[in-house]
Design brief:
With 133 residues, this protein is of the alpha/beta class. The chain is built from two helices and eight strands. Helices cover 18% and strands 35% of the residues. A hairpin with a 6-residue loop joins strand 6 and strand 7.
């Protein structure tokens, strides 16, 4: 098959332990918009205007925290930012809100791209990346 069957992502669905706090991470800290809520599910849908993330509330607490080195599953999500200054601004905003930061903005490989890694309130690893162009 020479032509892919798919053409990009429509949305990403994440199960979270802290529904409201995870939604606030995306809306208040990253500037996304809440698209809708589904209290009966419960779920909150958020979007940056390009991709939608569906946040689903966990039904019961997991027996152990996810370990990206040992478990099959989501290693991290990477979201582009428009400029190096936006990356730095996002970092400052996240630090100011006491978000857990894995590492501050740094070169990705030999550059000029730069990236940082943090965790949403449910422990999902989030990368913000500026591609350097």
């Amino acid at each position: 098959m020479d032509t892919p069957i798919t053409s990009g992502a429509h949305h990403i669905g994440l199960t979270v332990s802290s529904l409201e706090e995870s939604a606030r991470f995306f809306t208040d800290l990253l500037g996304w918009k809440e698209v809708r809520r589904r209290p009966d599910y419960p779920a909150i849908y958020v979007s940056d205007g390009t991709i939608m993330v569906t946040l689903w509330a966990i039904k019961e607490e997991p027996s152990a925290a996810f370990d990206r080195r040992k478990n099959v599953g989501l290693h991290h999500l990477a979201f582009r930012v428009a400029s190096e200054s936006e990356l730095n601004r996002a970092y400052d905003r996240l630090v100011g809100d006491k978000v857990v930061i894995e590492f501050a903005p740094e070169p990705l490989g030999v550059g000029p791209a730069r990236h940082m890694m943090c965790y949403d309130p449910s422990g999902i690893r989030i990368e913000l990346i500026w591609l350097g162009n």
